[in-house]
Write a structure and sequence with these properties.
The protein is an alpha/beta fold. It folds into two domains: 113 residues, Periplasmic binding protein-like II (D-Maltodextrin-Binding Protein, domain 2), CATH 3.40.190.10; 129 residues, Periplasmic binding protein-like II (D-Maltodextrin-Binding Protein, domain 2, 3-Layer(aba) Sandwich). Helix 2 crosses helix 9 and helix 2 packs antiparallel against helix 10.
Length: 274
């Protein structure tokens, strides 16, 4: 697609409507509709929840320096259990085995950033989406107020093999796209002056910016492309385990209404990526 056509597509997406455009970085995520119709549940039917996760997906679910599970997803799982007044366990599995563990009834729910599309979508049922993951640009301070990504020249750092890198190659014809092993490596390249800007996963960038606020900041707006960056984060449950899926949806709706999801989000992402 030519730059002029891409510019038209991007400008048309500035108004955030159905989760496919730009949104102000000051916004908080609202993906669980607080006005949604209540699911009918009997809390007695879900007296306990066995969550499965992984320990290698910071800042969502990972092992901290003491070996304790931490992250946004871990806190959200605890909050879901508390809202349901259910006994809660959270067990970490290797990424290569965690889907089989869920399928083999080693747990009731998987909260680990599993892609809703593809094989997993056919194999498991999913809760409502509780967080979408936009892309963002990061540059060194001071940030240009009228930042235009399509006018960027110089070097853009991305994560190797990511959808963000592919999009940057197609979209930013005036820039040199350089790939790094991880988002954090790409962001460090911006901090060191090796790259002029970063384009990639906004959640990872926000986590990094919280520790590097003096150096860099988000530039421009959040860019939502569910077709490229995934539909968002949801809880996977074994196919047909409707009582658990409905109970989790019930809890997510109430946690959104009560502001608890916002509290957890800001705990892990004080630099909002929206």
């Amino acid at each position: 697609m030519a730059i002029s056509a891409l510019r038209a597509v991007l400008l048309a997406a500035i108004v955030f409507g159905n989760g496919t455009g730009f949104a102000s970085a000051q916004n908080l995520p609202v993906h669980v509709d607080p006005s949604a119709r209540d699911d009918m549940i009997d809390p007695i039917a879900v007296p306990a929840l066995r969550f499965l996760t992984t320990a290698d997906f910071p800042p969502f679910n990972y092992a901290d320096d003491t070996g304790r599970l931490a992250g946004f997803n871990i806190d959200l799982a605890d909050a879901i259990c508390a809202r349901l007044e259910a006994r809660c366990t959270i067990q970490a599995w290797p990424w290569s085995r965690v889907q089989e563990a869920l399928a083999d009834n080693q747990g009731d729910a998987l909260i680990a950033g599993l892609d809703i599309a593809g094989d997993a979508g056919e194999r498991f049922d999913f809760s409502r989406i509780y967080l979408q993951l936009p892309a963002r640009f990061v540059t060194k301070k001071p940030i240009t107020p009228a930042f235009d990504p399509l006018s960027v020249t110089g070097t853009i750092a991305t994560r190797e093999g990511s959808a963000h890198a592919d999009l940057a190659l197609r979209m930013l014809e005036r820039a040199e796209i350089v790939s790094y092993a991880s988002e954090f490596d790409a962001l460090e390249a911006v901090a060191s002056g090796e790259a002029d800007a970063f384009f990639g996963d906004a959640a990872r960038a926000s986590f990094w910016l919280n520790e590097n606020a003096d150096c860099c900041a988000f530039a421009g707006d959040a860019y939502f492309r569910p077709d490229l960056f995934g539909a968002g984060l949801a809880v996977a449950v074994p196919a047909g385990l409707d009582n658990v899926r409905v109970a989790i949806n019930w809890a997510l709706t109430r946690l959104q209404r009560e502001g608890r999801i916002d509290e957890i989000y800001l705990r892990w992402f004080p630099v909002s990526f929206y």
